[in-house]
Structure formats: C-alpha cells, structure tokens
Amino acid sequence: MKQQQLAVIYHSAHGHTEHIATQVAEGARSAGSVDVHLLKAEDLASRPNELLAYDGFILGSPTYLGGVSGPFKSFMDATGRLWRQQALKDKLAAGFTVSSLPSGDKQSTLTSMFVFAMQHGMLWVGNPILPEQHSGVPYDEAANRLGSWSGLMAQAGHASAPDAFVPGDLKTARMFGRHFAETLLRVGEPAVAVAVAA
User: Fold this and answer.
1) pLDDT at 146
2) What CATH number does the domain containing 77 carry?
3) How are beta strands 56-62 and 92-99 bridged, if at all?
4) Residue partners of 38: CB distance under 8 A and separation at least 6
5) Cis peptide before 162 (omega within 30 of 0)
6) What is the Cα gyration radius of the chain?
7) Number of Cβ atoms within 10 Å of the Cβ of 96
8) Does residue 170 form part of some domain?
9) What is the DSSP letter of 160?
10) Is the pTM of this model over 0.90?
11) Domain housing 76
12) Strand runs (DSSP E) across 41-143, as ranges?
C-alpha cells in the first residue's frame, strides 16, 4: 500500500498558529506510515493544484473577528477550479484554530473550514478527545480542555510561541494530529471482500 500523504495547511501571522501546526504534524508523524508536510496557505493560494498530491488535509488558521484570516480565505477561494471539477472529493479533512480567548468565536472558524471541505466533497474528521479535566487532570494540563468536538481549538496567551500555550493545548494538538493520521491510514486500507453465503 502506498504511503498516505498528509498536508497540514496553515496561516500564522505571529507564530502561534504555526506552533500549533508543528505540534499537530508531530502527532501525525507519530502514527507512522504517513508522510506529513507543513504548508503555508499563502504559498498554496498561487498553486492550488498541489493539493491533488495529498490524501488528507488538516487546515489551520487563527480566528480573526469570528472567522479565518484573510490569507487563509484567499487560499480557500483559490481552489474554485478544483471545486468545479470535484477534484478533492473523498479526501479527508480536519481543522484547527487559535485565538487569545477561550472562546473567541473559534467555532465560527471551524464551521467555515467544515463548509469548505463539504463543498469539495471531502470527509470531515472531528476531535473525539474527551476533556481530561473531568477525570481530575488539572485544567491547564488537560487534553481538549476547551471542549471542542468539531475540530481542535487552542488558546494563545500574549507571549511568543511556544510560551503562549498551556501544556494541555499542546498535548491536544499532538493527539489530534495522531488521531487524524490513524484515521487516514484506516480509510486508505484496501477494501476487503467479504463472502456472503446465499
């Protein structure tokens, strides 16, 4: 079976979203058998056909005024011809976002990414990680402490990355990346024929 190709596509103005992207990629690589590439959305906007080489995409943007950043939206808009051809149909997709507040309307950003993936006919992979604070893990160390199921949310403080993040958000990013890569590997397995007795 060919090695699955995964692109972590992100825009980051101040380095925070980029740091989470590297953690997501690290987690994805830990699954093995997945070739993981970190790609900047602003670079792909001028060459969207490069997306055809990948089996799955993890999309990442900061949340600006309740949505994706301008450069990330430009990348999304640049895929119009691929949409008309449905060239990305049946590929896997997931999303993550960063803002400075626990909420910050990050859900709107993830919803924008979800709609983008659905219009391309992609299959969305959510975030099944249970919030660990409910099992006694200290809040700042807990996986999925922000309680997001549709994608990964992280909160950045005002320091530079990586000091802007609590340990739980970094751990969640790695777990999220690994889960996506494992899902990509399962989906990419050859179909097994099942004989059914008449």
Assistant:
1) 96
2) 3.40.50.360
3) parallel
4) 8, 10, 21, 22, 25
5) yes
6) 17
7) 30
8) yes
9) P
10) yes
11) 4-187
12) 56-62, 92-99, 123-124
| pLDDT per residue rounded down to tens, the chain (198 residues) | 679 999 999 999 999 999 999 999 999 999 999 999 999 999 999 999 999 999 999 999 999 999 999 999 999 999 999 999 999 999 999 999 999 988 889 999 999 999 999 999 999 999 999 999 999 999 999 999 999 999 999 999 888 888 999 999 999 999 999 999 999 999 987 655 555 554
- 8 A C-beta contact, residue 158 and residue 133: no
3-state DSSP assignment of residue 73: helix
Amino acid code (one letter) for 97: T
Pairing assessment for the beta strands 123-124 and 4-10 based on DSSP bridges: unpaired
195 in a domain, yes or no?
Answer: no
Q: Is residue 197 part of a domain?
A: no
Q: What single string gives the DSSP state of each residue in 166-185?
A: -HHHHHHHHHHHHHHHHHHH
Residue length of the chain:
198
Report how many domains make up the chain: 1
